[in-house]
Amino acid sequence: MEAKKENREVLLSVRDLEVTFGSRRNPFKAVKGVSFDIYKGETFGLVGESGSGKTTIGRAIMRIHPTSGGEVIYKGEKINGKISKELDKKVISEIQMIFQDPMASLNERAKVDYIIAEGTYSTKKDLPKKERMELVDNSLLDVGLLPEFASRFPHEFSGGQRQRIGIARALIMEPNFIIADEPISALDVSIRAQVLNLMSKLQRERDLTYLFIAHDLSVMRFISDRIAVIHKGVIVELAECEKLFEHPLHPYTQSLLSALPLADPDKEKNKELIVYHPDECHFDYADNPPEWVEIEEGHFILANARELEEYRAQLQK
Amino acid sequence: MEQKNDVILSVKNLNVKFNLRGKVLHAIRGVTLDVHRGESLAIVGESGSGKSVLNKNFIGLLDPNGFISEGEIMYYGMENGEPQLLSGYKKDREWLKIRGKEVSMIMQDPMTSLNPLKTIGKQIGEAVEKHQGFKGARLKEEVLQILRDVGIEDPERRYKQYPHEFSGGMRQRVVIAIAVACRPKILICDEPTTALDVTIQAQILKLLKELKERLNLTIIFITHDLGVVANIADRVAVMYAGDIIEIGMVREVFYNPQHPYTWALLSSLPQLGIKGEDLYAIQGTPPNLFKEVVGDAFAPRNPQALAIDFVEQPPYFDVSPTHRARTWLLDPRAPKVDPPACLKKIQPSL
Questions:
Q1: Which of residues 22-51 of B touch A (CB under 8 A)?
Q2: Would residue B350 count as lying in a domain?
Q3: CA B217, CA B229: separation in Å to the nearest integer?
Q4: Residue A269's domain spans which residues?
Q5: What is the DSSP letter of A271?
Q6: What count of other Cβ atoms lies within 10 Å of the Cβ of residue B348?
Q7: Does the residue A163 lie in any domain?
Q8: CB-CB contact of A195 with A204 (8 Å)
């Protein structure tokens, strides 16, 4: 890790991103000024509860949701808002997404070959049919499925196999960057491990960068290099994975960690649950608003001056 | 029956089959299980292992194409002490005296288990009225008390609200309120926290533990999350392919697991994984229950399976008086196979 740090290249950079839903008269800001960088080849985790805006961020980067403020910069080029046709094409093939529910994210009425090849009809329009099917076969093999499956319908597959089809669909575009939105939370325990292993194998082989969105911190700890914790549309803490688990500073991070169920009865039955009360922890935010500060190398936190002192004291210990 | 005082529900060699597209699916294959009064028993397994089907038998909610082909279920919790043969019930009317009052159930998804057209107060009141016969102001008072019991603040205002005005965690609290409204003796929780966030899940688990103490409940908890099991259960039963393959006190099963399937299940936890290395993954798929299963159902997926695993189903071997497992590895003649090394990370800390 240490050696890599020196020449890390920023692949995607999000600056003050805002996403607003609702009408102009009654707007709802789902993402309120979020900034982070994702380095090439890393797995960047985004954790938070439902409603925290973690999926919205992923979808805003994918340009499924329009942004209402801020910038998304991919390889030095701004990709949100209006962009040129060439850039649009490039971004479509290089950034791909894996969705949460493999039961809902595949077209029930299309066969697997079409589902997987669909993206190539837009980027490689004039590809002969034979070559396109070759791409599909390779893509199926890459995710551990057989080429024979291409002529079947999605309902013939189990949840784990469907998620593999979802991954194959992303891979055929030869992406650099994959946004995985809770890719394993709808799967069974034993299948989860298979899909996680597949994802890390693909990352090693193709030098992929992942934005991994999940609410399960134990999965995050296993797969992520760096983790950002998001609460109500704001990132409250960002650090390298182990640092975050060893020294969680923000009270919200602490409450998330304490709620994580551990498969260890002695520890689990005696743990203390930390509940996050924003009003009590941040009582002085009105006169002393928080800022996004790097408290130690690579460890960012949202805090005001009073809290920073407390957190620094905690780190000294 | 000397165990009558301790055992509230007793299942003997239960076999459940389903008629499906002209074929017969053998969903529960000879489950024997005693549920003790006042315990919380967790049933873990993959989807399709039969954990939900097993529990639906206890409350008479088996799908119409399913039937008990063999075995019996006895219930010993009635006020008058009369044992009830639940597996012999045929009519819905017979179930009325069990459902709600004796055995109650919480379903997985709080979004779909409430009626969107009725207020919360009405829905809880419905159950109370039917079973306890309260009416009018007395009924409302009782419902408000139940809402307070499950930790819903400002019950007066909440009473008049509809389910869509509640968050997921609050809705699950309402579902729990309805389930315990008639003071059941057994509460079956079918993955009650799977659809919830971790922080909310922790709160709901805490609530269930409090209610269990306060109302003297026996809890049967169905889940696939081993972390939740560690949190809530006194005893764990591991199900695979319609059978309980290992059962024991929670510390015995986590710290001294015996069956290769339990090993595999525990090893595939991301918590035990080492970053940068592959996580242990169980290969293959569960057996097809349309076909007769020969030998140990897990053998085809077990890389260390013994020859006999493919021929004959292992009996239960006792590990301790409270812990038994269905694996030939416990037979004195079996070669010694060590559990996977990563399981050493789960160690008793008391």
A1: 46-47
A2: no
A3: 17
A4: 245-317
A5: P
A6: 12
A7: yes
A8: no
Using the 3D structure, point to which of B233, B258, B276 is the last residue of a domain. Answer: B233
Which residues of A lie closer than 8 Å to B, measured between beta carbons? 49-50, 158, 188-190, 192-194, 196-197, 200-201, 215-219, 221-223, 241, 255-256, 258-270, 273, 275-276
CA dihedral of B174, B179, B180, B185, whole degrees rounded to 10: -160
* Inside any domain, residue B212: yes
The answer to whether position B81 is within a domain reads yes
Q: Is the pTM higher than 0.90?
A: no
Say if strands B186-190 and B103-106 run parallel, antiparallel, or are unpaired. parallel
Same domain, A221 and A276: no
Q: Is residue A240 part of a domain?
A: no
The whole-angstrom separation of Cα B33 and Cα B39 is 13
- Summarised one tens digit per residue, pLDDT across range B4-28 is 458 999 999 999 999 988 889 999 9
Q: Which two structure tokens, joined as six digits, stand for B38?
A: 């006042």
pLDDT in tens, B78-131: 888 888 898 888 888 888 888 888 999 998 777 788 999 999 999 999 888 887
Q: Which domain holds residue B215?
A: 2-233
Contact residues on chain A for B269, CB-CB shorter than 8 A: 189, 218, 263
Answer whether A268 sits within 8 Å of B225, measured CB to CB. Answer: no
Does residue B248 share a domain with residue B228? Answer: no
Distance CA B350, CA B336 (A): 28
Give chain A's domain count: 2
Evaluate whether ipTM surpasses 0.90.
no
Judging contacts by C-beta atoms under 8 Å, the chain B residues touching residue A223 are 270
Select from A158, A222, A265 the Cβ nearest to the Cβ of B279: A222
